[in-house]
Amino acid sequence: MTRHSRRTRRTTLFAGIAAAFVLVLFGGAPAFAAGALAGPMLADPVYSHDGCIINRSANGPVAGGSQCPGVDLSGQHLAQSDFDGANLTGTNFAKADVQASTFAGAVITGADFSGTRIVGADFTGAGILPPTVDAVAATTAGTAVSLTPVLPKGLTMTGCSIAGEQVDATAVFPLGQTGLVCSFASSRPNEVATVLVKISVTNTATSAPPVPVFTPQPSATSASAPAAQGPSMQTLSLLLVGAAAVIVLGVVALVVRGVRGKRD
């Protein structure tokens, strides 16, 4: 093989490799661009079966809430799930894992949480305790508030606290609003879920406007009869003129009498 032919083959090989590189580069670019424009794919739900769809907390709740009444979720790994607004009537969570999940506005009547891992779960607004309790105190010292939880199967109330301090059942709450954190546990040791309750205490003596002890009433005479008025300036002028005329006439009469007396 001559040197010229070897050079020709080498040039042809390099040209083929370059053409293949260009084809791959520009041929795959549209597909890559299309994937980039399509955006990230939606994350899969943590559970989906027979119409029961449960999203992860990072993705927010299912539109309208997860509809899982009577569904057997026992033993399922559902950590950090969003059950907000879900229908969980009679749902079986026995020995499931719902740690760090939220249940705001969920219906959990008849649900079973026996042996469920609930550490860090938030049951605020799920019907175990009311999210807000309004109380009226008889005095400005405040009042005690009674909390009666509605517990689903498998959960027990362990107590309530304010800023980490345990609150006794007979504690008196002051006027105003107080945030209360109540804890609940399943049969798993050292694992609790929480419910936040806002206590609002008012007092009728401070909230109602003050009632005046005495309110003066307008007198009947002042309302029916006009107020007495003094004489006008014109009347005073006439009186002064008349008085002056009387004095002048008296002086004239005295002078006339004196003149007559001298003549006699």
Automatic annotation (TrEMBL):
Q: What is this protein called?
A: Pentapeptide repeat-containing protein
Q: What does UniProt list as this organism's lineage?
A: Bacteria, Bacillati, Actinomycetota, Actinomycetes, Micrococcales
Q: Which SUPFAM superfamilies match?
A: Pentapeptide repeat-like
What's the superkingdom here?
A: Bacteria
Q: Which terms are listed as keywords in the entry?
A: Membrane, Signal, Transmembrane, Transmembrane helix
InterPro entries listed in its UniProt record: 5peptide_repeat, TAT_signal
The record ties this protein, via Pfam families, to: Pentapeptide_3
Q: Where are the transmembrane segments?
A: 236-256
- Which species is this record about? Subtercola vilae
Signal peptide start and end residues: 1-33
